[in-house]
């Protein structure tokens, strides 16, 4: 009997086709996650925090209870998955899985301040970690799961493009330091200080608080800006191409024969 409940609960919590019960649970948890993000945001408004502080706290308590029960239930039923079949080692592996860690982070910001009563600044900042509950939406969104899969499959290409961008950032900042230091010793006082200018230039943000004034520095800045645009759009183009390919693949898989109703390979 218990094994049957465990199997049904696993189907509701962990499988996309969890039936009506699974859709109801997913919808409720999505609404609760969105509600948490709204509450955390509104709690930063002093007037609202003073007037509705008690409501915010009780909503937070309710959310933590729900997320804690969900987390414990997922830990219990995870052994229904072949990857976590072993009752002990399987649960340990599941504990360190990405989604399980996100679930844990969703409840820790509420529990830790109770375990550490000292009202320290770094303890209070744990409240901001409640925004990480937004990451739990990845469980219930096919688009987010697809993007996570693409990031994993294209991690080498993305890592190479980001490495090239970092190398360009370091080289350009070092060159600009040597060119502009004599003319602007305060603005370009060191290579680490020049990194701020390099990051803002390569990303085309350009706050304008630091900029070259020598002719050579201006020419170099223009070249770096053009190179930065090319390099920084590489990860986006890699993901866009992979996403388009994945969407096309799913459309092909969904093509069915109009006569027999079976999928056409």
Q: Can you give keywords for this protein?
A:
single chain, 265 residues, mainly alpha, Four Helix Bundle (Hemerythrin (Met), subunit A), Helix Hairpins, 2 domains, 71% helix
Characterization of the model:
Mean pLDDT is 80; it is low at 120-124. The protein is extended and about 80 Å long. Helix content is 71%, strand content 0%. With 265 residues, the protein is mainly alpha-helical. The protein has helices spanning 2-14, 19-43, 46-77, 89-95, 98-115, 121-124, 142-153, 155-180, 191-202, 215-232, 234-253. The protein starts with a helix and ends in a 12-residue tail after the last helix. It is built from 11 helices and no strands. Helix 3 packs across helix 5. The chain has 2 domains: 2-140, Four Helix Bundle (Hemerythrin (Met), subunit A) (Up-down Bundle), CATH 1.20.120.350; 155-251, Helix Hairpins (Orthogonal Bundle).
